[in-house]
Amino acid sequence: MEGLDDPAYFTLDHDWTLLGFLTYRQRLDDFQYGNGFEHSRYSSNLATICKWEEPSEAVMKKACQALSVFPVK
C-alpha cells in the first residue's frame, strides 16, 4: 500500500483498530511508548488511505470504519 508508514499492518486481513495497530507496533523495534507518537502514526496512515485517488471499496470501507471510531484531527 503506497505511501503508508505501516503497509504490513494496513492489509485487509487486519482489523485496523487502534488497539490492533498498537499491538502490532509494540512488537517492532521502533515502537515509541507514552508520547502519542503511535496514535499520530495510526491517524497518519488512515489519512493517507483516505487521500488515495482510487482506493478499492473494501479498503475505503475499512479506513472509514476505523476513522469513525478514532477520527483524524
From TrEMBL:
Report the domain of life of the source organism. Eukaryota
Q: What is this protein called?
A: Uncharacterized protein
| Species name | Jimgerdemannia flammicorona
